[in-house]
Amino acid sequence: MRLIKKGAEADIYVTNWNNSEAILKIRKTKNYRNSILDSNLRKQRTIKESQTISEVKSYGIPVPMVYFVNLKNSSILMQKIPGKPIHDLSNSKIISLSKNIGNLVGILHNNGLMHGDLTTSNFILFKNKIYVIDFGLSQKTNKPEDHAVDLRLIKEILNSAHAKIMKPSWENFLMGYKSKVGLSRFQKIINLVSIIEGRGRYATVV
Length: 206
Fold this sequence. Notes:
Elements: E1 2-6, E2 10-17, E3 20-27, H1 35-58, E4 66-70, E5 75-79, E6 84-85, H2 91-110, E7 113-114, E8 123-126, E9 129-132, E10 139-140, H3 144-161, H4 166-181, H5 183-198
Antiparallel strand pairs: 1-2, 2-3, 3-5, 4-5, 6-8, 7-10, 8-9
C-alpha cells in the first residue's frame, strides 16, 4: 500500500484488489473533535460519498467502481482509473476536452449535485472517456449559488494552473455546460459567478 495524497479530510493510498490496482480512501481521525462525534461524522461522510458515486453513475457519468466500504475505519476501496488527469494533458487536449467537462458538470448540476472540488485533477481521461473522481466534498443542492461556487472554482483553477489556455478552455467549458443546463439557468449561474468574484475574499479572474 502506497500513500499518494494526504488531504485535510482523508489520505489516499494505492493498493491491490483482486490482482488489480485500487484506491483506498481513509478518512482521518480529528483529535480536536469529541471522539464519538468524530467517529459518527466520518462514518456518515463515508456512507454519503459511496452513495454519491453510485448515484452519479446512474446519471450516465463515468466514475470509479466502489468495491468495499469499511465503516470501522471510515474507508472506501474503489477502482483506480488508469488514465491521465486532465491537469497533466497537453494544452491543446485540455482545450478540446473542456467542452466535455462542461457537459459532465452540467449533468451533475441538473441532477441537483454540487461536486465541491472541481479541479482538472479530478477528471481523468481513460479510453476516450472522462471519469469524474473525488466526491468527498459533494452535496445535494439545487441552489444556483452553490452551482456558481462550483463554476467559480474550476474557473480559478484554469486561471492558475492553465493560465496560457484559460480563455479558450473556459469558453469551451461554458459551451458544454450551457448545452446541459439551458440558457436561462446558465445566465443566472454565470451572473452569480460574477457576483462571487466581486466579493472581497476573491480575486477577480479576467
